Amino acid sequence: MLSPAKKGGGLMPPVHTLMFHWPPLHPDEHFVNWARKRFPQAEEKYPGIATAKVAYLGTGGQLPDGKTATDYEAEGVLLFGVGRGKFDEHPGREERKRGDCTASLFAKDIGIADYPAVADVLDYIIGDDLHGNEVSPKLLQPLEKGPRGIIIRTLQRLKGWDFSNQLKIKHRRYQDSPEYVMDWSEDWLDDQYWDASQWVEAEKEFEAKAQVEQLEIGRGEQLKMAVVVSDHELMSVVARHQGAAVVVQFHDSGHFQIYSNKNRVDLRDVIRILRLYSYRAKGELPATMHPQVLEQEGRLPGVEELWYHEAGQAIFNGSLTAPDVPPTVLSRDKILEVVRFALHREAFDPDRSQHCLKGVCVHDDRNICPLFNLGLLRCREIRYHQHHEPERASAQSTVQTPAPQQS
């Protein structure tokens, strides 16, 4: 059987050996060993490559007996990173393209380099091989210009991808067992490729399902909010990667989560109102309705299904680590209504907003504001200044208190 891969106008025999330089191998060579077993395109172009044995060249890249990489390929031996062949990126090959390494040359040759998940892994491999710091310029670009969500994703990838250093340790520890290191690297690359595939899948689902809106938060400012019905575990991360400062993820089970950019968003009003409405929906109003109780971190008795994470500014009704939590009693529309209202710093009772916007609260026992029991942060701030700085409040408004509402 001859391979359809043409060399010098002829056909090469089935591949029986892959030749690398003497261990320790670099990440790009480990990528080749992994990809040749995982992608059928490799076997289609080079029959036998998936099961070919691995050999090592201990001459520093110089081929013995005056042979060339082409000579070896004609004998069923493919060389990677050595021999000045088509998979050797080192100086000496006139046709070498800048920005490539053994991994990218092989991926392009078998036609997988443009697969999104493969490209994600290759970005790291190329960065390590060409820049020696595990960071390629492509990975750094989002740090220079992207929204915070992209920065977070990039930093997560760089923090989690310590492949090069781990390989160095493995090769030092198992110097007499390069096959063991090969097996370990295959598992590692399987994990990274799976994670990259999940990311690509989540991005496609986000584009197809997400509803994105500009959330008015008052004072002429807006936040990008993404609302999506999905069970994908990476959906909230993808949404923030797309620049969403607030993400509301619903599930067909009736559960939901709210994620946010914690540096710009305070969800205390949101969790407080959601808990209050949940109590009301269940007919189980607690003895105390103090705002600071309703906004405390964790869960509260009677509304245990709602968990508030203060440090991360997130709200969870069920999660991967809490799969048995019952779904919320609130509708999706009600939840979104609460989010939009709670995060709008200039949303007040329509009959009193003219005073509120001037920093004056006209609520008292005779003129009860229907929003008073919500304990909104913006209202508490106004009342604080009125109590501690009465002259400021007096200067801000000269309007009279409206007449009591008729019962």
Report on this model:
With 407 residues, this protein is of the alpha/beta class. It has three domains: 3-204, no CATH class; 210-342, no CATH class; 353-396, no CATH class. It is built from 16 helices and eleven strands. It has helices spanning 27-38, 40-45, 69-74, 102-110, 116-131, 137-145, 148-160, 163-173, 178-209, 235-241, 268-282, 291-294, 332-342, 353-356, 377-388, 390-396, and strands at 3-7, 10-12, 17-21, 53-57, 77-79, 211-218, 221-229, 246-250, 256-260, 307-309, 314-317. The strands form three sheets. A six-stranded mixed β-sheet has the order 6-7-8-9-11-10, sandwiched between helices. A hairpin with a 4-residue loop joins strand 10 (307-309) and strand 11. Helix 1 (27-38) packs parallel to helix 4 (102-110), helix 1 packs across helix 9 (178-209) and helix 15 (377-388) packs across helix 16. The model is unreliable at 133-137, 142-153 and 397-407 (pLDDT under 50).
Count of the domains: 3
Stretches where pLDDT is under 50 for at least 5 consecutive residues are 133-137, 142-153, 397-407
> What is the gyration radius calculated from CA atoms?
31 Å
Total beta-strand segments: 11
The ordered H/E elements are EEEHHEHEHHHHHHEEHEEHHEEHHHH
Helix content: 40-55%
Q: Largest beta sheet, briefly?
A: 6 strands, mixed
Mean pLDDT: 84
Structural class: alpha/beta
Globally, the shape reads elongated
Biggest sheet strand order reads 6-7-8-9-11-10
Task: Determine the strand fraction and express it as a percent band.
Answer: 5-15%
Number of helices: 16
Distance between the termini: 95 Å
